Input
Amino acid sequence: MLELCLNGNGPQAIILRDVDAILCTGAVIAEEFFSDENISIPIVCAIGEEIFSQLQQNGEEEVTISIESNQDNEDVVIRMNGKHEICSKNLLAMKSILSFIDGCDGEAQQPKSHAEKLAQRVVQRVGCISGATELIPITSAHIDAVTYIGQGGLRFAQRLVELDGKVKVPTTLNSQSTDRRRWEQLGIDKTLATNANSVGDAYLELGCAMSFTCAPYLLPNKPSKGDNIMWGESNAVVFSNSVLGARTEKYADYFDICAAVVGLVPNTGVHQTENRKPSIVIDATDFIEEHLLPQIHADIVDEKCVYKSGIDLLFPAMGWLSGNLSDGRIPLILGFDLLPSVSRDKLKAFCAAYGTTGSSPLFHMANITPEAMGDNVINDMIQSCGDRRVQVSKEDLVEAYTTLDSGKQSGDDISLVALGNPHLSVGEMKDLVDIISLDDRPKNESVKVIATLGRHIQSEAGLLGKRLEEFGVTLLNDTCWCMLLHPPIIPSTNPSAKILTNSGKYAHYGPGLTNCNIRFGSMYQCIEAAKSGRIGSNKGAGMSWLRHFSTHKLIRHIRKIR
Output
């Protein structure tokens, strides 16, 4: 929206069914930070489900919108051919002043720069649109808006610098659009690299840490349970809420840096305890007992089978499925505590995939995540969900896997293995080295293997990184797969090119981002493809819980959870 407003291509009006503070944020930023440029700001109104349905039914009619001539320009009248009138409010005209929560030093919140003054107005206005009545302090921030998507975002970051902006809380940066140090060596377009690094430079000048990672929870100073934070990036939001027990909403780009500059966010959504309760049960108990545990017990006797089993695929597949089944609600997920272990790395994969299909920023996993520990707590959560309960079947997981493995019909030969979405951890690097070491075959020369990871992790990993590079893995810092959209990294000039990933997130977004065929496989399959040039069959990889895909006639289940 900010880009559209600044380049003169913004809409005149947007009619929503429900209030959407994220959609409004770009227009609020444009109005507050670029008011000297005579920018046209759209009317944005939310009219509710019933009236919105009426508009849809009359979609072929011409709809004219006018603003009543009141002092605040708040009242909106939607006229349809002069016959029907619908009264609403212009969300962008809502400018009530939110109070500071008790215990928050109001005097300390007085702006110390013009940048902070404007940022505080943005936080106030977005909070008002979202229905908040007060602002609360945060302990940290993670900025998603560091990706270069156009001149508007770059100009905004640079304007914050020009107006003497500085962050008030420890603030990390998400992945940007290129490796800051090696873009030329990698053959990245100079204009893109220059713009991408300029965005990053501006945020560094604002006082953000030199982090550039989509996995800030792997850094040393991660938040604790109960901390109110402002984190961007979908997988980081889900992980911080669910696995760490910290509290953050899903916030819009550009709002994130405004909140970091003022150190405050609206007290709404999952910042409030009552809004963190689950309202739907997703029960995988029977599936895990019948299909997973027997295989796991069989694989314990053979170290190679532990990797070959493909159990690691359960977590991204189940994360993707849980996001779909939760229907916008916060789910309580049952059954995973039956597994011998559920590591942070596996939860990382789950969270990333859940964030692609689930609109809620939080899930609870019984006896795994910190807010769902103990029988009494879990029973209370189950009771609060009422009769909203979904039993996970093998067919559900088969469908999830088949959807993520969308390039299967294109064949098994692989051009690129994409690892590290989200960024690799030290534990994942060790697993990769262990799998490579299962035999002495070298990497196939026709296959590129690229992994993205944060600088901090690569430094901490030491010899593990060197061992991966010796095998032929290219390690990239500062950027991630959702930002790597063009050659020479992405083989988009070859229509038959196929990318293999073990990331549910990248398997979900990759086809649209790259126009390539995306295959989805386990970490073992990724290394096997790197050596052989082909992805092995699921049967050959030993994944008995997902065998016989081709013999299943898949029926897409569309479940309406009310």
Notes: Residues 548-562 have pLDDT under 50 and may be disordered.
